[in-house]
């Protein structure tokens, strides 16, 4: 593996974070950055325009970290100048622009990927493997609740300008839409959405609802209207045999409630730092869904197969119900840095080996963008009182 010279186009807070993370990689050297205002102490060559850094022939890979509406023009120009590109989410603000980027990839034979770093989180990686193996049965439901602060987003910030950001679902929710997409091979067949504006400028709450073709239903709620003290993200995954609740914008820990047998219980040990807090035989668990006086409860254990339960129309062999915690065991800073390094390393692997399959291909960016766009369009078409 050779040394790759990287440029960063868009040197705000996140661009600087990428520089901080990538400079620890043996195969990468950040040689140039570009931003709207000069960094007080630029650590490398600094450009104050995007066309200047794109013209720099010393750059092998250009990271596109500009506001979303500029992604298409920046990425296509960079690839036409001979550079490989890593594009921050969303891929673009319109489907047409996203497809234009993908067309230029084919025209130039450059390598391009999108920075969907959640796919490299070890907790998500393990859950993805368990989900595809159906260790816990089918994934039936995902609920994402994301509460973010707006104290650093004044009304004049580009985030509120839909022409630049695309709105909350396109600018922000695509990260989590892709997380759900990465957990399943199901296709979205119905997408709806809702939104609320506190005023004519700030559309600060948005919801997307997605139904997939084998019954998975996902809801994404995102709000940018609370104090920073209340910033919180939760992700609930509901399987035939389990409910897993994850915490954090970058999920680092969570809680598991699952019906298991010896085989599936062993498989769950792949989850990081799984700690079983309670385990009970299914034969000792009572149906508490009905109140006293309701009549005889319907038991969930099949009478003909005392060690089986039925869920989603499927019969499963189970022995215990367990309650457990999971925890990656390192800080958000460490995981975040590791993930963005992994995304870049994956891009480099594709550059060096054309047969390598990208883990964050542009197709993933297009798929999540299409869902976000459909939800946003549905919300905007709703009549207003």
How is the secondary structure organized here?
Layout: E1 4-9, H1 13-22, E2 28-34, E3 45-47, H2 50-54, E4 61-64, H3 71-80, E5 84-87, H4 95-108, E6 112-114, H5 122-132, E7 139-149, H6 162-165, H7 168-182, E8 188-197, E9 203-212, E10 217-226, E11 232-239, E12 242-247, E13 253-260, H8 262-267, E14 275-281, E15 308-311, E16 314-317, E17 320-327, H9 332-352, H10 362-381
Parallel strand pairs: 1-2, 1-4, 2-3, 4-5, 5-6, 7-10
Antiparallel strand pairs: 7-11, 8-9, 9-10, 11-12, 12-13, 13-17, 14-17, 15-16
Could you characterize what this model shows?
The chain has 385 residues and is of the alpha/beta class. The chain has two domains: 4-116 and 334-377, NAD(P)-binding Rossmann-like Domain (Rossmann fold, 3-Layer(aba) Sandwich); 119-331, Dihydrodipicolinate Reductase, domain 2. The protein has ten helices and 17 strands. The chain has helices spanning 13-22, 50-54, 71-80, 95-108, 122-132, 162-165, 168-182, 262-267, 332-352, 362-381; strands spanning 4-9, 28-34, 45-47, 61-64, 84-87, 112-114, 139-149, 188-197, 203-212, 217-226, 232-239, 242-247, 253-260, 275-281, 308-311, 314-317, 320-327. The strands form three sheets. It has a nine-stranded mixed β-sheet. Helix 7 packs across helix 10 (362-381).
């Amino acid at each position: 593996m050779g040394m790759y010279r990287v440029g960063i186009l868009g040197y705000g807070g996140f661009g600087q974070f990428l520089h901080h993370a990538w400079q620890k990689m043996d195969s990468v050297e950040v040689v140039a950055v570009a931003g709207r205002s000069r960094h007080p102490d630029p650590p490398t060559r600094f450009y104050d325009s995007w066309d200047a850094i794109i013209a720099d022939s010393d750059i092998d890979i250009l990271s596109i970290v500009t506001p979303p509406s500029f992604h298409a023009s920046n990425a296509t120009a960079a690839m036409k100048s001979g550079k490989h590109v890593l594009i921050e989410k969303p891929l673009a603000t319109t489907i047409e622009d996203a497809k234009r980027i993908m067309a230029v990839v084919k025209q130039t034979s450059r390598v391009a990927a999108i920075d969907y770093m959640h796919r490299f989180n070890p907790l998500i990686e393990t859950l993805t493997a368990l989900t595809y193996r159906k260790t816990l049965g089918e994934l039936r439901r995902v609920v994402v609740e994301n509460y973010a602060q707006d104290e650093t987003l004044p009304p004049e910030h580009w985030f509120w300008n839909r022409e630049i950001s695309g709105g909350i679902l396109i600018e922000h929710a695509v990260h989590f839409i892709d997380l759900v997409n990465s957990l399943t091979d199901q296709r979205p067949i119905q997408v709806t959405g809702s939104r609320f504006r506190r005023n004519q400028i700030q559309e600060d709450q948005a919801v997307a609802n997605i139904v997939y073709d084998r019954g998975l239903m996902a809801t994404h709620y995102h709000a940018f209207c609370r104090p920073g003290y209340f910033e919180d993200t939760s992700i609930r995954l509901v399987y035939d045999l389990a409910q897993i609740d994850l915490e954090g914008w970058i999920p680092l820990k969570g809680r598991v409630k699952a019906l298991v047998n010896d085989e599936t219980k062993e498989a769950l040990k792949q989850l990081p730092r799984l700690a079983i807090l309670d385990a009970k035989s299914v034969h000792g668990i009572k149906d508490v869904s009905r109140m006293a006086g309701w009549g005889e409860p319907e038991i969930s254990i099949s009478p003909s197969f005392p060690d089986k339960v039925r869920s989603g129309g499927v019969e499963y062999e189970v022995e215990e119900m367990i309650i457990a915690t999971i925890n990656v065991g390192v800080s958000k800073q460490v995981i975040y840095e590791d993930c963005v390094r992994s995304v870049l390393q994956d891009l480099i692997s594709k550059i060096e080996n054309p047969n390598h399959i990208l883990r964050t291909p542009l197709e993933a960016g297009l798929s999540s963008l299409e869902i976000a766009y459909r939800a946003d369009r549905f919300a905007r078409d709703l009549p207003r009182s």
